[in-house]
Amino acid sequence: MIDLTGKVILVTGGSQGIGAATVKILNQAGANVILHYGNSQEKAEEIVQNLGEESCYLVQENLAEKNAAIDLWKQAISWKGKIDVIVNNAGIIVPASINDELETWNQTWQQTLQVNVIAVADLCREAIHHFKQQNGGIIINIASRAAFRGDTPDYIHYAASKGGVISLTRSIARGFAQDNILAYAIAPGFVRTDRIIDTAIQAYGEANLTKDIPMGEMASPEDVGYVVAFLASGLSPHTTGTTIDINGASYVR
Predict the structure, then answer these.
(1) What is the pLDDT of residues 188-204, one digit of tens each?
(2) What domain of life is recorded for the organism (predicted)?
(3) Do the beta carbons of residue 140 and residue 184 sit within 8 Å?
(4) Left, alpha or beta for 176 (phi > 0: left; psi -120 to 50: alpha)?
(5) Could you tell me how far CA 178 lies from the centroid of its own chain?
(6) 2 located within any domain
(7) Contact 27, 33 (CB under 8 A)
(8) Is this model's pTM higher than 0.85 or not?
(9) In the chain, what percentage of residues exceed pLDDT 90?
């Protein structure tokens, strides 16, 4: 049912975790995928090698830098001359305690907002201009369960940034539907990625992280990737503005 043949899709943060699973699923559905990565060059190149350069294009940019998102968009659009769907998946999660030095606190907040909100907004802005010229397009922003239920004290800034992503997405959906531009948010809870395994699971233990998940386990990256593929298909346009939760019923709105 999901056929993305002919579509050009940009996925940010596509070298590992949710992004890598999404790139592979979109490619399997027939899409030409632009894989953006920040630092994980080896992993990104391995994905392109497996999928084939004719259907997967590699772009590197550090989204923590001001206006890097603009350069990313220019590189991405140069491949096929168009983009039909953008998946804003790239994000960072770095702890910041209220007991940290003020300079450290400020730097972590600024970096988090730059990557998780400002770069996303910059890419959405470029996408909207482009989509207006080609009579439509789709924006899919990866947010978080934390946007709605909050997070632990060391991740207040992360929750705030993802709340910004939700508001950004809803505003785009309301403001540009008349231009045939659709905007969706996906809000995962814990997803079993290398980053979660290396950080949260080692620090807190998997049992502690999954104790409030009725399904008893974390979601897989593919669980998110398949939802992205459905939204990218455009088969349900009147769901624009929607946030889809993927959290095993650990937070039900």
Answers:
(1) 999 988 777 666 766 67
(2) Bacteria
(3) yes
(4) alpha
(5) 24
(6) no
(7) yes
(8) yes
(9) 90
**What is the length of the chain?**
253
Rounded Cα distance between 150 and 200, Å, is: 16
Enumerate the active-site residues. 158
Q: Is residue 182 included in any domain, yes or no?
A: yes
What mean pLDDT, rounded, does the chain reach?
Answer: 95
Give CA–CA dist 7/23, Å, rounded.
13
Alpha-carbon distance values, 96 to 4, 66, 110 (Å): 40, 21, 11
Let me know: does 244 contact 185? Beta carbons within 8 Å: yes
How does pLDDT run across 113-137, given as a tens digit for each residue?
999 999 999 999 999 999 999 999 9
Q: For residue range 142-183, what is the model confidence (pLDDT) as tens digits?
A: 999 999 999 999 999 999 999 999 999 999 999 999 999 999
Does 156 map to a domain?
yes
CATH of residue 96's domain is 3.40.50.720
Task: Give ∠ CA 108-222-59 in degrees, rounded to 5.
Answer: 55
What residues make up the domain containing 15?
Answer: 8-246
Q: How many domains in the chain?
A: 1
Task: Report the candidate in 76, 22, 81 with the shortest Cα–Cα distance to residue 51.
Answer: 22
Q: b/e per residue, 220-244, with b = 16+ CB within 10 A?
A: ebebbbbbbbbbbbbeeeeebbbbb
Tokens of 247: 């959290």
User: What single-letter amino acid sits at 223?
Assistant: D
Whether 151 maps to a domain, the answer reads yes
Do 246 and 217 touch, CB atoms closer than 8 A? no
